[in-house]
Amino acid sequence: MAKIKGAVVVDREKCKGCEVCVVTCPTQTLALATEVNSKGYHFSYAANPETCIGCSNCAVVCPDGVITVYKVKIG
Amino acid sequence: MAEVTFNDIIKPENLAYRKSALMTDNVMHYCPGCGHGTAHQVLAEVLEEENLQERTVGITPVGCSVLMYNYIDVDFQEAAHGRAPALATAVKRLMPDKFVFTYQGDGDLAAIGTAETIHTCNRGENILIIFINNGIYGMTGGQMAPTTLPGMKSSTSPYGRDVSMMGSPIKMADIVALLPGTCYVTRQSVNTAGGVRKFKKALKKAVQYQNEKRGTCFIEVVSNCPSGWKMTPVESNKWMEENMFPFYPLGDIKVPAE
ipTM of this model? Predict the structure, then answer.
C-alpha cells in the first residue's frame, strides 16, 4: 500500500511560539523547543519528524505563515 | 526499499503547503496566536488562487489590522475609523472592475462604523466585508466592545459585562442578513484547520458573487484575542469554542438562491 510521508520546515526566527500548530497536529509531530529564538519565543519544531503525514494542518492554522510542508508517496 | 530521509522529502516537487506568494516577508506585529494572521494568510491565498492581485483594492480599518497593507501585496486604501464600507462604496463605484474588500474589527465595524456598515449592506454595494469579531477592543487595551459577551470581563468591565447597564452584545451578521441588499452572509472561524478551510471556501464564494454582481457579501470571523482576554493562545481558542461559538454560532446565515 502506498504510504505518505511528510516533512515540516519551520522558520525558527519568525515563529512566535503560540503553540496553535502543536495542538492541531494529529500525529504529535510538532512540539515547542526548550531553547528560544532571538526574540525570546520558544519556537515550534518537528520533535518526531518520522510521524509526519504531510496533512498541512499545522501550516494552515499558523498565524504567521512560518511552516512549509512537503510530502511524498512511498511505494 | 531504501529509507526516505528528511532531505529526500524536502524538494520543490514534493511541496504540499507554503505560505501564499502574496504575503510579504515582513514579520506581522500581531500577538502570538492572533486570528488576524491566519485570516490574512487565507485571504492572500484566495487572492492568489483567483488571480486577483492586479485588480484588488483592499480597505484597511482602524484597529489591530490597520497595518494590513504591510503584509498582503495588493493595493490598499486606509479608511477613517469605521468608514471602510463608505470608502469601499466609492472605490467600487468609480472602478467597477476592481475586486473590493474591507477588513474590519468589531470596534470598527460594530461600534463607530455601524451606520456605514448597515447602509452599505442595505444599498447592496457590490463589495466584500470581512468582519473579525473577537469581542473586545484589542489594539487599545482590551476595552469592552459592542460584541463583548454578557458577563465577559474586559478592562472597562472588570466585573463582567452587566447587560442591564451596558446592553446586550450585537450580532452584526444576523442584522445585515435581514437587509435585502446582502447576498451572502456567513460566520466562520480560523482556530482549527477545518475552520480555516471553510473560511477559504466562503471567501471563494464571495469572490464569485462579487464577479457576478450579486450584492454585498459579509463574512464574520469569530476570532480570539489572547492578549486582551489575558490567556495563552491555546487557552483562548478553547475559551472561544466554549463561550463565543454558542452565542455566535458558525455557519451560513444567508445564501443566495442559485
Answer: 0.93
Q: Is B211 on the interface with A (CB under 8 A)?
A: no
Out of B9, B41, B190, whose CB is closest to A65? B41
Q: What fold characterizes domain A3-74?
A: Alpha-Beta Plaits (3.30.70)
Long-range interactions of B18-21: CB distance < 8 A, separation 24+: B18/A59, B18/A68, B18/A69, B19/A59, B19/A65, B19/A66, B19/A68, B19/B44, B20/A65, B20/B44, B20/B45, B20/B47, B20/B48, B21/B48
Closest CA to B182 of B133, B219, B134, B208: B219
* Chain Cα centroid distance, residue B255: 18
CB B115, CB B123: distance < 8 Å: no
CB of B165 within 8 Å of a chain A CB? The answer is: no
Neighbours of B242 (CB within 10 A): 9
- Nearest chain A residue to B232, by CA: A18
**Distance between CA B244 and CA B222 in Å, rounded?**
8
pLDDT tens sequence across A9-52: 999 999 999 999 999 999 999 999 999 999 999 999 999 998 99
Model confidence band, residue A1 (pLDDT cutoffs 50, 70, 90): low
Contact residues, chain B, for A56 at CB < 8 Å: 16-17, 193
Which domains are seen in chain B, by residue range? 30-136+144-254 (3.40.50.970)
| In chain A, where the domains are located | 3-74
B35 contact A CB<8A: yes
